[in-house]
Write a structure and sequence with these properties.
Largest sheet: none
Radius of gyration: 29 Å
CATH architecture: Up-down Bundle
Structural class: mainly alpha
CATH topology: Multidrug efflux transporter AcrB transmembrane fold
Number of domains: 1
């Protein structure tokens, strides 16, 4: 059972059964989870705002930073999924017993780390595509070339990051049980964001570029009129055809 769910159930029982005039307090990991819940939301939103501002200054655009930030929910899928898979395998006996395979203080730190790690894939693609579009290439062709050129750097940086965080995810040394969720969050988020970014970011970039092009170049207004040949055909025989 996740720690957050356990805390909620215990609080419900305490509210129902605790006599009037009594109070309770949390300690240990439960206290850290309660104290860090509100702070994590503030830190997460602040990190997103800072990332958006930096990318907007780098790309000189208010749209393309959103394209890069889409990498964050893609990473969240893998982070939560790997935590759940490892916890399920541990409870079923396939893996050794592992504690804290849930949303806790260390896994929340892993989510904050992912904000800076996973956006670099989108930056590599979008930056190269912008450079190609500046030469007159279409958005689809620019992103296609970006995928071909930037694929190797994306895979190299992603797998080197995963290799560096694997000792924490596997759990070596004292206190490994508490740090393991942070490593699993980073590894799972990097795996899914690396591969899904190669498919999602090009599609979103192409759509956004098409919308921006239509907004900057609205279709010319069509004028309603008739041609001289039409006027001559419709005019009576005894009336002169107006000169155009």
């Amino acid at each position: 059972m996740p720690l957050g769910t356990a805390i909620e159930r215990v609080e419900e029982l305490l509210k129902a059964d605790m006599p009037a005039g009594f109070s309770y307090d949390w300690s240990g990991e439960s206290k850290e989870f309660k104290d860090s819940g509100g702070e994590f939301t503030f830190v997460f939103i602040l990190a997103l705002v800072i990332i958006y501002m930096v990318l907007a200054a780098q790309f000189e655009s208010l749209v393309h930073p959103i394209t890069v930030i889409i990498c964050v929910p893609l990473a969240g899928v893998g982070a939560l999924g790997l935590l759940w898979i490892v916890g399920a395998l541990s409870r079923s006996g396939i893996l050794p017993p592992m504690v804290a395979m849930n949303i806790n203080l260390f896994s929340l730190i892993g989510f904050v780390l992912l904000l800076g790690l996973v956006t670099k894939n989108g930056i590599l693609l979008v930056e190269f595509a912008n450079q190609r579009m500046a030469t007159g290439v279409s958005a689809q062709e620019a992103m296609h070339e970006a995928g071909l050129v930037r694929l190797r750097p994306i895979l190299m940086t992603a797998f080197s990051t995963i290799a560096g965080i694997l000792p924490i995810a596997i759990g070596f040394g004292a206190g490994a049980e508490s740090r393991r969720p942070m490593g699993l969050v980073v590894v799972g988020g990097m795996l899914t964001s690396t591969f899904l970014t190669l498919f999602v970011i090009p599609m979103v970039y192409t759509v956004y570029s098409g919308l921006a092009r239509r907004a900057s170049n609205p279709p010319a207004a069509t004028t309603i009129g008739t041609t001289p040949a039409k006027i001559a055909a419709d005019a009576p025989a005894d009336e002169p055809v107006p000169a155009k």
